[in-house]
């Protein structure tokens, strides 16, 4: 009798060890699934952002004389009001031609309406690595603009905030000044934890 009872005890331990191993395997699989979902979501955001940025870039390339209007209008997401003239973009025939600036305002309005359907934001800034400080177009030697798309805790901005503790962080680093040589060094690097992408236009 005593031998049988010992054998039953050994069988119970084997079952418990098997359950423990199964639990570890299931936890590992769950973690793997969570990571896969995260990567899939980021890939989706990147694909959607790239499509939207290409669309915006094409509009700007077609109307380059109003690039500063595009910048101010696209970056102003707080105010989404229909312009007085939508330059035929709303399907209504126009009787007079729009100026470059009016077309930029109308197209920017349509862009902002489209952006409301997505979980990312897009802004337009002078690229920080094109010979200037990135503050405005006049201080950039090449007059080059960048479209920045960001999602999650990242904002589509250029700066040194890389903590993300307040719920937001900058996408790209700004230009910095070397104290020894007094020479501005190129910025435009992604912050390590940023979820964003940049396109030079």
Structure description:
It is elongated and about 90 Å long. The mean pLDDT is 80. The chain is built from 3 helices and 7 strands, in the order αααβββββββ. The chain has helices at residues 2-62, 67-75, 100-115, and strands at residues 120-126, 145-151, 154-158, 169-172, 176-178, 183-185, 196-200. Helix 1 runs antiparallel to helix 3. The chain is α+β, with helices and mostly antiparallel strands and 201 residues long. It has one domain. The strands form 3 sheets. A 3-stranded antiparallel β-sheet has the order 1-2-7. A two-stranded parallel ribbon has the order 3-4.
Helix-strand layout with pairing:
Layout: H1 2-62, H2 67-75, H3 100-115, E1 120-126, E2 145-151, E3 154-158, E4 169-172, E5 176-178, E6 183-185, E7 196-200
Helix pairs in contact: 1-3, 2-3
Main attributes of the structure:
7 strands, elongated, two-stranded parallel ribbon, alpha+beta, single chain, 3-stranded antiparallel β-sheet, 201 residues, 43% helix
Order of helices and strands: HHHEEEEEEE
What is the total domain count?
1
**Strand tally, please?**
7
- Terminal CA distance reads 84 Å
Estimated structural class: alpha+beta
Shape by Cα distribution: elongated
* Mean of residue pLDDT values: 80
CA gyration radius, whole angstroms: 27 Å
Strand order across the biggest sheet? 1-2-7
**Largest sheet geometry:** 3 strands, antiparallel
Number of helices: 3
In short:
By secondary structure, this protein is of the alpha+beta class. 43% of the residues lie in helices and 17% in strands.
